[in-house]
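Issue 218. Parser rejects a valid record. Input:
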Amino acid sequence: MRIARFTDGSEPAFGVVEGSPEEGTAVVAGITPHPFAPFTFTGVRRPLAEVRLLAPVLPSKILCIGKNYADHAREMGGEPPASPVLFLKPSTSVAGPGDPVMLPAESRRVDYEGELAVVIGRLCRDVPVERAMSVVLGFTCANDVTARDEQATDGQWTRAKGHDTFCPLGPWIETELDPSDVALRTTLDGEVRQNSRTSHLLHDVPALVAFMSRAMTLLPGDVLLTGTPAGVGPMEAGQTVAVTVDGIGTLTNPVTAR
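Output the parser choked on:
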């Protein structure tokens, strides 16, 4: 099931995407109250092409894992860490499909980082690995945008990772994806810059859910970013970045100056 958050000019709502977006037959069927509990259909149905897709969730927090692909760890000048490297992005960094990634004036290099994102479906803590998937609602595409120069000068990553619009999410949540081995690609102006598979994750989705839930309580709608593969690089104003995860879809965002 594909669950989207959308607006047709009225208040934002959740809906189920039915039909084929690729063939232009998709519609969004509104649901209430939300996808984190049993829901009913409202009767509202809109062609996908006639609504604006929003970020599929507004998380209380975005938990991220650094250097979770060995090739990316090495391209950043180090060896893969033995344990997951956990950091946070603020909820205010979230952007939706088609929203611009805004480059802050104080940074001279802002990088794309395409990732698979996990959306938590229910309140949980201390989740064992063998039950980790039971707390997952589904998956979406993410771009862990990073001001690389600020990351280097600050010595920690909060400012570099936390600017407004630095966490595009979308286009929707896919609830039936097996995340163990799917293709992940990032393009910049249509040119492939990252091309990998989630089977190369050093710490897989169940391990990450268990690890993060030992550190803090996870709430419905929280987002976990699983890490980015090699090929990260800078974006410039006027370019377009797109993250595709097979089985989900493509998240596309223009890049502008702030």
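Fixed in the parser; the record now loads. Residues 2-53 form a domain with the SH3 type barrels. fold (CATH 2.30.30.370).
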